[in-house]
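Moderator note: this is an archived Q&A kept for reference. The question asked for a predicted structure of one protein chain; the sequence and the answer are reproduced below.
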Amino acid sequence: MSGATGRPVRVLPMPPDDTVLQHLPALAAALAGDGPVLLPVPADDDTTAARLARDLAADAPVPPAEDDPADPVVLMIATSGSTGTAKGVLLPAGALCASAAATAQHLGGPADDRADDPADGASAGPASDPAAVHWLLPLPSWHIGGLQVLLRSLAAGTEPLVLAPPFRAASFTAAVHRMPSGPRRTSLVPTQLRRVLDDAEATAALATFDAVLVGGAATPPDLQDAARAVGIRIVTTYGMSETAGGSVYDGIPLPGAEVGLLGPDDAAGDGSAGPTSGGIIAIRGPMVARGYRGRPGDPAFPADPGAGALRTFVTTDLGRWDGDRLQVLGRRDDVIVTGGENVVPLRVEAALRRVPGVRDVVVTGVPDPEWGQAVVAVVVPDLGAGTATLPAAVRAAGRALDRPSEPRRVVLVAQIPTLGPGKPDRAAVRRLAAGDSPPPW
């Protein structure tokens, strides 16, 4: 397929409802190595779709240097572009198939037999086999999380049920009742899981699933505990577009994936993924993308002569090992330096969520003339909870960790700004914390 000028790019508008299923044949053909490189964009947001097509040069082919006839690029996934122009993640067929196979192997079940080549089951349609795995899709299908539900359904030879936005407990429950019997799986973001747990009928419906993948943002420990306490089989996931979605489940790398923790010099050097006591998370494996469009030599995808056919992606996240499980500490850019001390927001957020009356919280830093940065907690109170004493309780919970972690200010909001499918928009949160935009309370 790769000629002297490269392969063309086809913009693929992804509807938010079940009409997205019309694209399953195109996805299956792409996985088989046929057709152009596909660039998924939102069908219901012309402005975003046009911006992504422009930023990622959809009118120009993918050059041979960024492709491989033996393992052609299938998807070009746009990163969020929250800090500037979006980047295009180049995912070859082999990476997507490896991700689907590793997920099926980890979760177990009848999809194992077909996951090595999702294209094999592409034309099967809804399966009549009562043991076949059926997926529910409640995520935007132009993001990697939603796309993977479609691809995993192809791997299982079944057709997913699509839950159109907005996500509501009642519509979720009704969708589950329409699903075929047999093994059920879905992928949620933490905000969706919390909405399910707020409704008894939706909670009972979700408890019928044999696996509920939760990712897209850090899943608070209290939310995990609440879900498992009522019999919901959640699996926390860590990954990104550059790793074809989740590649670490419940802290354990998927089959074929290797996780290393790098020091700053390693991250800028050869990208080796040897284990250390803590550092920058790097992922190596067959599910790693080929690189970014038009960015040869990007340090996020370092040359790794010892990896053979495997590729390495150096994330922007910090992590440490807790036994044999990876604990993600958050983005290194999000670490707050206050009075010369480092404060990791995810650690503080976990403590603040245990405060009665706190429904959700994001901790950020704002410029401070004395301390360099001041810790600020942006808090969503529980509905009906009194808020007069909540700021003091939040500050006390941070102080109980250590003095630098105590929020110097608490901002109450009706909801946390999000970016993509449920991920906190930390840039918008910082603006709220700094008073640059009025709190939506």
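Archived answer notes: The radius of gyration is 22 Å.
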